[in-house]
Amino acid sequence: SEMSGQKIGIVGSGLIGRAWAMLFAAAGYRVQLYDILESQLTTALQELQKELHSLEEKGSLRGDLRASEQFALVEVTTKLEELVRDALHVQECVPEVLELKRSLYCQLDELLDDKTVVASSTSTFMPSLYSEGLKRKQQMLVAHPLNPPYFIPLVEIVPAPWTSKEAVTATRSLMQSIGQRPVTLNREIEGFATNRIQYAILNEVWRLVASGILTVQDVDRVLSQGLGLRYALLGSLETAHLNAPGGVADYFQRFGGEISAVSATYGETPNTREDTATLEEIARQCEELVPLDNLAKRRATRDAFLTQLARLKKQFE
């Protein structure tokens, strides 16, 4: 793209920071990673190099550049003022602690010019919570990736009430230019879109297990062997649209009454942290299916599957 070759700053060199670095480098952007300690950056570069070469060996490396060429686009700094200098975009990936974010954004506010957009990777905080009162608040928003971002293209773009239209548009174009698939919320809301929908599913799954209706294995199979297969291609509204002769209007005319009647039986939102009996039972069954020392192996399987699924989806675009 015409924007590649430009500089992207990334605050935080942990897992998500590195994932963003790989996505931007794959598209030919120059990337600068910032962290507080030199040692964290040294580790990050080692991990980055290892991951890029491992992806190349598997044939899963994104972009047209070789792993070594992508790695050569990444540099590091322990100085925030150096990070923001000439940056088209800064992607913030610091831990989910509001005070930490606020103090970082106060620092950034003093250093930014009027062009650089700052996007947070947060899944927790609406952008107004950390950008209120800042001089450059119109350049700040959320660009929330899903884990692992290298294999899942969705990015949720969430503006604060004062975020400029230009910042939103620029971020959306940037995400498209690196091969991600952005969705834009017109205004901020708790949980954004992904978590609101994900939590609705988790709450009902919890209730079905808590009330003894389904085992963990079977309730997960409802998604993995059923709904999830459709959802890998279509969203729920298009699914409904295809499921009635006259499309979605016909679908809700036919099934709306049934949907309301079933929905009325859902019961309270579970307290998933304090309902310890259910949590222990869910954990017991989950750990039987995937013991804790197998989590890394299972994650690798997930990533291998998502890589192949991405290839399949490309054929249907």
What integer value in Å does the Rg equal?
22 Å
Helix content: 40-55%
Major sheet: arrangement of strands? 3-2-1-4-5-6-7-8
Q: What pattern of helices and strands is seen along the backbone?
A: EHEHHEHEHEHEEHEHHHHHH
Number of strands: 8
**Terminal Cα separation, in Å?**
20 Å
- Give the overall shape: globular
The biggest beta sheet is recorded as: 8 strands, mixed
List the total number of helices: 13
Compute the average pLDDT.
96
Beta-strand level of the residues, as a percent range?
5-15%
Helix vs. strand class = alpha/beta
Regions with little confidence, pLDDT below 50 for 5+ residues = none
Describe what you observe in this structure.
Helix 10 (236-242) crosses helix 11. The mean pLDDT is 96. With 317 residues, the protein is α/β, with parallel strands linked by helices. The longest helix is centred in the first third of the chain and has 21 residues, at 38-58. Helix content is 53%, strand content 13%. Strands 3-2-1-4-5-6-7-8 form an eight-stranded mixed sheet.
Q: Can you summarize this structure?
A:
This protein has 317 residues and is of the alpha/beta class. Helix content is 53%, strand content 13%. Strand 1 (7-11), helix 1 and strand 2 (30-34) form a beta-alpha-beta unit.
Characteristic terms for this protein:
8-stranded mixed beta sheet; alpha/beta; 13 helices; 8 strands; 317 residues; globular
Question: How is the secondary structure organized here?
Answer:
Layout: E1 7-11, H1 15-26, E2 30-34, H2 38-58, H3 67-72, E3 74-77, H4 80-84, E4 87-92, H5 98-111, E5 117-120, H6 128-131, E6 140-145, E7 154-159, H7 165-177, E8 181-184, H8 194-210, H9 216-231, H10 236-242, H11 247-263, H12 276-289, H13 295-315
